[in-house]
Amino acid sequence: MRTKNLWRHAVLIAVTVFAVFPILYVVSAALNPLGTLNSSELWPTGASFGNVTKLFSDPHHDFKKWLFNSVLIAGLASALSVLIGLSAAYSFSRMRFQGRRPALLAVLVIQMFPQFLAIVTIFIMFTKITELYPAIGFDTPWGLMLLYLGGALGVNTYLMKGFLDTVPKEIDESAVVDGASHAQIFWRIIVPLVTPVLAVTTLLAFISTMNEFLMANIFLRDDGSKTLAVGMFGMLGPDGRDANFGMFAVGTLITAVPTVGIFLWLQRYIVSGLTMGAVKG
Amino acid sequence: MRSGFVITRVLVLGVAAAALLYAVPPLVRTGAWVALTTLALAAAGLTYLYLTKRHVPAKYLVPGTIFLLVFQIFPVLYTFTVAFTNFGDGHRGSKLEAARAIERESLVEIPGAPDYALTVAEDGNGSVVFLLVDRDTKRVKVGTAEGLSDLDGAEVSLTGKVLEAPGYRPIRAGERDAEVQALAVPTNRGAIKSSGLSRAIEFEANRKYDPACDCVTDKVSGEKWVASEDKGYFVNAKGANLIQGWQVNVGFANFTRVVTDPNISGHFATVFVWNFAFAGLSVLLTFALGALVAMTLHDSRLRGTRIYRILLVLPYAMPAFAMLLVWRDMFNADFGLLNRLLGTHISWLGSPTGARFGLLLVNLWLGFPYMFLVTTGALQAIPRELGEASRIDGATAWQNFSRVTLPLLLVPLSPLLIASFGYNFNNFNIVRFVTNGGPYPVDNNLVGQTDLLITYTYRLAFEGGSGQFGFAAALSTFIFAIVATISAIAFRRTKAQEEIYS
């Protein structure tokens, strides 16, 4: 190590410690045999899987169900919203029609208004929907998922139009000559070409849906219908704040492992996905 | 290709038909004709769109547009209208519903009124009805929500229980308890309600609503409450009101309340200033640390860059909601890690300043990896020769950074920084999870020292038992206006507009 780079390593090590110590604390709390907040240390003092068994057998906290709900809602909502955004982006990028410019402008403006600001009326609206259609009302994953799809067109379309504009038009023009329909061009040519970008967009949408609490907390009151964010928040409620911390830490790690894995795997694309997002404003 | 055409059509029509089959019956049952007409028109429009070969762009735009209209644009417009009403707990329904609720609340037993033996039964539609046997005359009557009527041909036991009746099926009273409790059979004087499992008594409303004077009168005390259309309450001569009110338009009252209500205005100013400070400082701090790390790593001769990169983005990949709670508990005064490591007993989030610094620190931890990633991307686009050239010209490292690198970084990154400001301006999760708005001033438990506008709005509507939907909607409208301003600035600064016209 040359002296010139010493200060660089000093800075990087300091920031890395700051970045890593809370995660180390979670790992240590997950392994902590006592499983309470009070006894959790930064460095593991013992190693036991007691918290894991406790988490999966706790009758008061249905972690498996929450995990299932979260993956179901976030998985379907992010996949469908990317598909909805992509199909709108396809028509904006490849077709010329009346009202195209005002529509694009509208999409750009709408995406700046987060949906959850209207939470008061969303609540009033879904109170009515729950009366009429209990299957898509409160306490169901489907109502929340439909709600999340409301933001689909706003958030992704502009970004993906940018991706599609970089795909040469000559490719689909030659397909038209060969007699392909617009649907065939979309499914067989466009979708495969932008798959890496779609993967990143879906992953980012998935992560943000998993973390959504504001609307989920109002929608999902019944314990069996909760998502991880709502359920695990309740796990550390007034009664369980100290005692449940070990279980909570295990739950955090179980939630983190798949996303961290995919994240590190796709990291190269994520940087380009985020910077391409720079055009979206 | 033909078969593809046919299959898509069959699929689309099948899904549409199934959705209609599910959606129509409840609307017919409740007589929601406007909704029904809208639904029918939408279904017809969709069927046409996906059967015709024309209007290709619309086929790709319509699915997203429907969701956008129903779940985003409609709620937003609806928010603006609710903001001008007093909608909330105590002001939910119409005036007539409020009057009925007042009458129901004031029911008292009529002295000397006939005493009925009660048998609960189901009618042909499965609705709960009362079969009532007058203990003196032994005559049998049927009581429904519509009123009383005579019943002939019923078989009555010695105790007054109806054993069999034509057209009705007696059930055990406990079976549908909630409906039995709720059923009130209207009579000339008041209503007949169940009293225990096998007895029903005629009640009379002590307070009655009279449409002629548009007022509620108490029969015993003779007191009078007159309907006030401004307030949505029945108000007596002393200015006191009955609890049950109804929804009325209150004009700009919800908006002016922010300034005029002394319980709100002072705290609101604090929330407002802190909200801007939080968003601005969050962007500044995360960008400063992220850029520092990115530039430190931006040296191809450095060893170990891979491992640094992996460790540094970990906070971004961890589930944010869970890590926020972990941070909250690290700050905990009694059990927290910080106090145990330092051997202190400090309530870190107990003072306003401490809580604010805590939030900024937690947000720095969560947010700097994102800034690190995007700055790394932007740095790669800046040619290294620029820095070398300025160094030859005698620039110091700081001059090199502030005059060359930073301006070049800000060109691609400023839209992202503005977006990050907008995101943090409404960063609900961090405040809700780490401090929940606290600490709270002693004189007010609805608005805390670290509340953002969005968490304050949320508490007004859904927590703290206040249920002030109208006022919360007014605050939402206010946030919308701020977001619109931020967006307008962002919009002017990006080249987005030009791209549309390309």
Structure, described:
The complex is a heterodimer of chains A (281) and B (502). With 281 residues, chain A is mostly helical. Chain A folds into two domains: 1-48, no CATH class; 62-280, MetI-like fold (Orthogonal Bundle). Chain A contains 14 helices and no strands. Residues 277-281 of chain A have low confidence and may be disordered. Chain B is of the alpha+beta class and 502 residues long. Chain B has four domains: 2-82; 93-103 and 213-246, no CATH class; 107-205, no CATH class; 259-500, MetI-like fold (Orthogonal Bundle), CATH 1.10.3720.10. Chain B is 56% helix and 12% strand. Chain B contains 17 helices and 15 strands. In chain B, the strands form three sheets. In chain B, strands 1, 2, 3, 4, 5, 8, 9, 10 and 11 form a nine-stranded antiparallel beta sheet that branches. In chain B, strands 12-13-14-15 form a four-stranded antiparallel beta sheet. Chain B is elongated, with a radius of gyration of 34 Å. The chains are: A mainly alpha (281), B alpha+beta (502). At the A-B interface, helix 1, helix 3, helix 4, helix 5 and helix 6 of A face helix 1, helix 3, helix 7, helix 8 and helix 9 of B.
By secondary-structure content and strand pairing, the structural class of chain A works out as: mainly alpha
Instruction: Tell me the number of strands of chain B.
Output: 15
Helix content of chain A: 55-70%
How much of the sequence of chain A is in beta strands? under 5%
Report how far apart the termini of chain B are.
34 Å
Query: What structural class is derived from the secondary structure elements of chain B?
Result: alpha+beta
Largest sheet, strands/sense/barrel of chain B: 9 strands, antiparallel
